[in-house]
Amino acid sequence: MKNALYATTSALVMHQPVLHFCRHAQLLNKFYEWPKNTSEANIFFREVFRLPDFWKELGKKMTFGFVQYGFDIGAKLSLWQYFYGGTWSAGEFADWNAFKYVWAGCAAALPTSWTAVPLEMASRAYYADKTWPIEMRRGYRSPLNALARIPFEEGPSYLFKGGFPIVARDFMFFSFFFTTYAWFKNKMFFFWVYNDFSYEYCKSIMIVASWAIAISASYPCHFAREMVDLWPKERGGHCTWNNNYR
Question: How many Cα atoms are found within 13 Å in the side-chain-facing hemisphere of 201?
């Protein structure tokens, strides 16, 4: 569990600020065009940091991210290490590694595929609350505050409404990611054992390759989630499917 938290915390520190900056740059681009030279780029990207609540929102995202990455991705990594780390292949017997990768990946992804649902629902509830008129808002102060309040104000089941696309997405993604990464790490050992390539460099390439394969496998589920929950519906309040997109 400790190693998983190290990995997830490092990923959070590198990923969340970059994503936050890119989204605010896109927001500023809705009012100003993209810079065309170095001087304009200096002014444009400096103004990104001066957008209202830029640093305040970044602090909220980082705080919530530690909970999200630790409870969600950290749990998935820990369970995968529990299953895969306890396996071995006996000498002079048929190697069952090809099945071991798939078994360990699915065994870790299946029971933890739901952990992202309440966290994503709380985050979306916080940002959606800002779009309502003031008199109709719940007044969530942060995604973490929404996560703490919703079970008592709306009921625990509210955090799991419509969560199947997220569960399916995470199961497909992490089962493929764990399986392919373990396969790469086992079969490509000759790069760092016999050819003296950096072990960390090889692992970074294998992680990127496994991540790309996992994204390709889980993208249909992610697309379905975007279509059901985030796409704008028909105008005039009319819905062909009676709001039953699922």
Answer: 6
In whole numbers, what is the pLDDT of the chain averaged over residues?
81
Closest-CA residue to 65 (of 138, 130, 141, 122) = 122
List Cβ neighbours of 97 (8 Å cut-off, separation of 6 or more): 89, 183, 186
Cβ-based neighbours of 132, under 8 Å, separated by 6 or more: none
CA terminus-to-terminus distance, the chain: 35
Four-residue CA torsion sign, 201, 204, 205, 206: positive
Report the distance separating Cα 242 and Cα 185, nearest Å. Answer: 49
Q: What is the pLDDT of residues 102-129, one digit of tens each?
A: 888 888 888 988 988 888 888 888 888 8
List of residues 6+ apart from 173 with CB closer than 8 A: 109, 214, 215, 217, 218
Q: Which two tokens stand for residue 173?
A: 């993604």
- What does the alpha-carbon distance between residue 84 and residue 149 come to, in Å, rounded to a whole number? 37
Q: Give 43's pLDDT tier (boundaries 50, 70, 90).
A: confident
Tokens at 18, concatenated: 């970059």
Q: Which two tokens stand for residue 45?
A: 């990207």
Closest CA to 147 of 39, 211, 72: 72
| Greatest extent of the chain over all pairs of C-alpha atoms, in Å | 72
The whole-angstrom separation of Cα 160 and Cα 114 is 9
What pLDDT was estimated at residue 29? 87
Q: Enter the tokens of residue 109.
A: 């992804």
Structure tokens at 129: 């609350």
> Alpha-carbon dihedral of residues 154, 157, 162, 166, nearest 10 degrees?
110
Rounded-to-integer distance, Cα 105 and Cα 182, Å: 9
